[in-house]
Amino acid sequence: MEIIEKELENILPFVEKPVRYTGGEWNTIFKNPDGKLRVALIYPDVYEVGISNLGIKILYNILNQIEDVYCERAYAPWVDMEKKLLEKNLPLFSIETKTPLAEFDILGFSFQYELVYTNFLNILRLSKIPFYTEERLNENYPLVIAGGPATSNPEVISPFVDVFVIGDGESRIVEIAKIVKEAKKSKASKLDILKEIYENVSGCYVPFFYEEKESCGYIIPSGKRVRRWVEKDVNTLLFPLKQIVPNTQAIQDRGVVEVARGCVRGCRFCQAGIIYRPLRERNLSDIVRYAKEIVKNTGYKEVALLSLSISDYSALKDLLLELDKNFSLHGISFSLPSLRLDSFTIELAKKVKEIRKSGLTFAVEGGSQEVRNFINKGVNEEELFHVIEIASSLGWKSVKLYFMVGFLEDPYLEAYNIAELLKRLSSNFKNINITCSVAIFIPKPHTPFQWCRQLSPQEGEKVFNYLIGLLKRHRNVNVRYNNPYLSFLEGVFSRGDRRLAKALELACRKGARFDGWSEFFNYELWQSVFNETNIDVNFYLQKKDFDTEFPWDIVDVNLSKKYLMKEYEKALRGEVSRECSKKCYDFCGNCNFKDIKNRLAEKNPVYEEEKDFLTNIWIDKEATFTIRFLFSKTAKAKYFSAIDLENHFSYAFIRANLPVVFTKGFNPHIRVKLMGALSVGIESHYEIGEVDLWKEMPVEIFINKLNENLPAGIKLKRAFIREKGNFRVKSLNQPHYVTLFLKANYTKEFIEKNIKECRSFKKVTQKGEKIISLVDYLKDVSIEDGILSITYLHKDGGARLGDIIFGVAGVDIKNAPLYSTVINRRFVVEDSFEKGLFEYLI
Prior knowledge:
By secondary structure, the chain is α/β, with parallel strands linked by helices. Among the domains are: 2-209, Rossmann fold (3-Layer(aba) Sandwich); 359-483, Transcription Regulator spoIIAA (2-Layer Sandwich); 625-723, Alpha-Beta Plaits; 736-841, Alpha-Beta Plaits (2-Layer Sandwich). The model has no long low-confidence stretch (mean pLDDT 94).
């Protein structure tokens, strides 16, 4: 661990976003790992994606509630970090303690979709862990477990995974942890652990104990079926209220509350709607209480309400009233990412407008009623026009609509119908910008469409271009489409079998990474891989017969195959199935109507209003005071970018419940003003910021409260408050002198020679190039006891920090952190006397 920490100091300056690897985020859990079961939860994608995943948040919280278990996290390193790890021969490590992943007892992977499989293998490779279960049996390697929606067909990666958790994971991960803990005490073998899980933990698939057979062109596992585990009531489960605040902006940079799990709509293409049944709603009072705790613990000013269909939440009207009453005046907004057209009323729209600031998004899926009936979408064109009319009347300027093609035999007709629908919308609502996002339909396992064919990527590309051509004259319609070649690969792996494991291994060794990212996806590489492994991938995308035995049939998702067949036949007839929240119509086989059943939220929840919630945070307050503060940015915080730093101050203001002021306009936010951006990796003991307050407060309390709520490495030293507009110097960005130190064994002669050779340099400005004279900006340069001290003039349009360091020491700004570069002081010269910049500004 210490070796990795030390080496990271030499690596981080040379990778994009070093804070992906530094750890120490707000709400991170730290424990003494000695004597504890060590678990690493791993999301096999980049940090900003993985840290947003709700499943990881939930399991991280649950495992760390157990006293003798320490759960940490890891993510897929970006390609630049991978290169550095290989150069230094360093293993991949955990975020919290920098422990090599190979030293953990359990590695738990979350697979949200199939295009992270090569990242998964690459993580094992970088951790120096063998790919295959059989290669790990007789050595002291971690138990490799996996969960998530992609594992509803576990077969593609089954040779690499020891245990799959099928279904809800909260109680399963605890059971597995107990078994591994006992095995460590008794020094049981890996095989004994696998056998114990196989025999005694429901909802777990252990591929090692299954034979293989060929059937219908597939490699099929032979053995007992594994029934999906269902947590019966989400209200009884632990939910994370101290969610980790990322070091840098994540793709979902907000708090999260799971409003409901499961869906009753029965869209025939939707795998999530199948594998998360039955519907289990969280009680309204808990949602409001959780949201308050999350805001207080994180400082987020936005919370996402997660559900497969939030507008179907049975107590939504009451929930929106409570959210408006409890949060809106505090500047806290909510995102509702899964609204449905057929339940979007004007009353709902008004409430959504009050608590949500972003545009509206709806999944229409099909351009004709024929397609929408085929997929059981249950919406019509009249409802769509009504919703857009509501949105327009309430001031929304943009709407995003999702579509898919490939459901019917003629995808060009589907595209034509989508275009005609969008043309009618465009003509009727000229003030609305419409974004059409279209993708190839991917038939998923365990859905009524698992027997359907998938469009080839070449055909999909032609259909998308045809659609774009039909709409090119409609300026308020913007068409975007998913890469059809990515959809092709996802389709292959979602309906594949064990033969594809060899292709995955070969692709990983050939350099396949981040296949879901367009800048890294390499279709030609995958073509060569499938050719070398003699795999006909088109087989997996072809239409199948009802009597086909699938590899994923080993998983029982609690729905009968007869039900899926019946739904497919109804689709062919254009029949629509009813939703089943209150009454069962189709008997899919999921519910036993005893403990496994739909559970709706309590109708009349009792909610006691909290008196101390954000008592100083109000969106409508006007600025009456400004407080300026002096702070340091050191240790891991030196890797925060300027935007990251502003965000962390904003979060800290809310956590500390300080009387800060919001900006006005469409997206109110706390305006934190910081002096010019400091290069990433440079420490400073002298940075200055300011924020407006709506009431006066003692600076000592401001400093103490903020320091208690700032990430490690950021610390306020001093502060001064005045009535707004009463500081004698209005702007923080004033010309001033900067004194910085570098650890460098330079001679005086070397420094003088360097300055002489770098007397001037070009600087590109908006007005063109200009020549900057280095000596005009240098005030003092000295070296003593291996410390190089530089004092230079900093002003807009002049020499930058990087120019000065390079000109004096010959050190590129990226290398500067290796020399322990630190800004020690900022000052001005006034009447021949030096005055600290902070004193000058107040």
